[in-house]
Amino acid sequence: MTLPGFGQNIARIDIELDDILDLNITAPTAGDILIYDGDSWDNRFVTGDITISAAGVVAVVPGTPRQIYQTNAAGLAAEWTSLMDGITIGSTIPAPGTFNTLTKTGTTGLTWTNVSDEDYELLFLSGVTGGPRMEWDDSEQAFSFNFGLRLTTGALGLGEGTPLAGTVVYLARDNAGDLTFNALAGKTVNVAIAGTDEYVFSAATLDMNSNDIREIGNAGSQLLADAWTMVSANAQLLSITTTGGAADAELKLILPASSVGATRIHFIQGSGDGSANNMEYRLFYTGNTGIFGLFSQDIDGASANGNIFQITDGTNDVLFAGGISTDGVAAPIAGMNIGAHALFNTSVDSALVADQVGFGRYDIGVGNTVIALSQETAVVAASTESDFSHAMQVRINGVSYFIMLASSLS
Questions:
Q1: Per-residue pLDDT tens digits for 11-47
Q2: 8 A C-beta contact, residue 366 and residue 377
Q3: Of 199, 216, 217, 221, which Cα lies nearest the Cα of 208?
Q4: Reduced to 3 states, what is the DSSP secondary structure of residue 19?
Q5: Beta strand pairing status for 100-105 and 121-123?
Q6: For the chain, first and last CA: distance in Å?
Q7: pTM of model > 0.70
Q8: HEC states along 101-163?
């Protein structure tokens, strides 16, 4: 080498780096690197989650999060963060768009390895075998995980696809927008709130766990724990049908033994208070009185209520609180209006009963069935028809008469 003005060859020139103006080196330490900031080269110690030794070895600080990131040719990114100690990535990084496996090398290292099929697997380790794992199954076109996933923002969207086999627990969208939850045979699909199963679906039942169902079809229609209500401006129908030729259709209103409560079926118009156009009838059974009957909210045209008829436990006797008509004409206020004639099929002897009269049928002998009369006033009869000193007084059409009585005929 010949320098101008010196006239001789120079074999060697030694220059100290700190004499170069555009090179600033201050207190160098092992692992420093030179970084050009646009004006000069400066030595800098590497800080953060990596260190560089004097031998040039880059190491990730143990116990800090790292990202493993790959983007394929189509721009699809797969990014995962995990706490792993001593991660070492091999020098051969696969090209984007290829299927590869991140596998364990040695005790703590990880390396990329090309594979021939279309299975793509990520294996995350923290110094031991069996860490978190995600694996692509090409036959099912799905990823499988051995760890949980959590969305920190946004929503989970499902693209259109084909549901998996019924032997797999899955959530899927198919049939142009259907959402399918699938559980294994004999298992349930559970909807939980605050860690408690509130709605449990099985193959045979829906368990509501005592929860209400509200606004069924119309506002106000609901199934509550203690009340079922249907509300609509349209006609309402409650139907119980059996298709079995020998099966029964039953409606049961049940009280516990020794109950003092009541079972009732209400027939209500308007408010049901008994005023005009607001009537109520009630078919009832009361446990404390042992009475079955029919109740009316208005029995006198002035909103006074009361029973129409009733039957007491242990009897088959019917007590009518008002008149009875059998001819289709309005019933009397009290008593009975018989349209044709009354038939008495059982022989009952007459007897004197205080404050009561009655009539019925009595069999005196074979072929001799007569009317039996009962009244409070005693009757005295003559011995023969020639003695008219004995008579029974009766009232016919508002006029009093005496019927001559004899105990025998001559």
A1: 666 666 555 567 778 888 877 888 877 778 888 877 7
A2: no
A3: 199
A4: helix
A5: parallel
A6: 184
A7: no
A8: EEEEECCCEEEEEECCCCCCEEECCCCCCCCCEEEEECCCCEEEECCCCCCCCCCCCCCCCCC
Q: How confident is the model over 382-402, as a mean pLDDT?
A: 66
Q: How far is Cα 83 from Cα 314, in angstroms, rounded to an integer? A: 82
Tokens matching residue 119: 């299975």
Q: Residue type at 274?
A: G
Domains of the chain, residue spans: 1-45, 62-145, 251-342
Measuring CA to CA, which residue among 289, 297, 249 is closest to residue 270?
297
* pLDDT tens per residue, range 113-130: 444 344 444 444 333 455
Q: d(Cα 98, Cα 308) in Å, to the nearest integer?
A: 90
Place of tokens 């009595």: 362
- Three-state DSSP at 13 gives coil
Is the Cβ–Cβ distance between 164 and 142 less than 8 Å? yes
Strand 100-105 relative to strand 50-52: parallel, antiparallel, unpaired? unpaired
Cα separation of 109 and 112, whole Å? 10
* Residue 188 tokens, joined: 């349930």
Residues β-bridged to residue 229? 222
